[in-house]
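Comment thread on ticket #2218

A.B. wrote:
> Attaching the input chain for the structure job we discussed in standup.
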Amino acid sequence: MADERPSGETPPDAETADFEDVEGSLPDVLLISLVELIERLDDRGDEPLSVSVTATIPGGVVSGLLVPRRWWVDEATRELTASDPNIGRAMGSLFTELRPLDGALPAYFHLRDARLIVGPGNQHGSGMLWRGRLADVSGWSFTQIR
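C.D. wrote:
> Ran it. Output below, let me know if you need it in another format.
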């Protein structure tokens, strides 16, 4: 099939074709691919496949172990239920209802044992569950700040 773009117009980048470019900022395709890989290789066990990630986000840096959404939801539901059974059940149902569509690219990433660093030396959380938008990440690495 012939390309029907005007002469000289660059075709869309295959890596970013599914994302809307908002203010010139697209999610990192490698980070998206890593999130998809963790999801795809999830064996649904008690101990999830994980990889160390540190990401720069608006307002600071977050560091932890990247885990599958399913594990993060299960663990968040357990923590909420331990605190308040009614809230835990309600949020567990909500997490299930709001699961991503099959085949959709991930929009969020999920960390366990996360630490949020805001400003010089201001670490928040030690081992918390954390969820963030992939579109908010401006840089990342395969490391974990402890």
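A.B. wrote:
> Thanks. Noting for the ticket: The first helix runs from residue 29 to 40.
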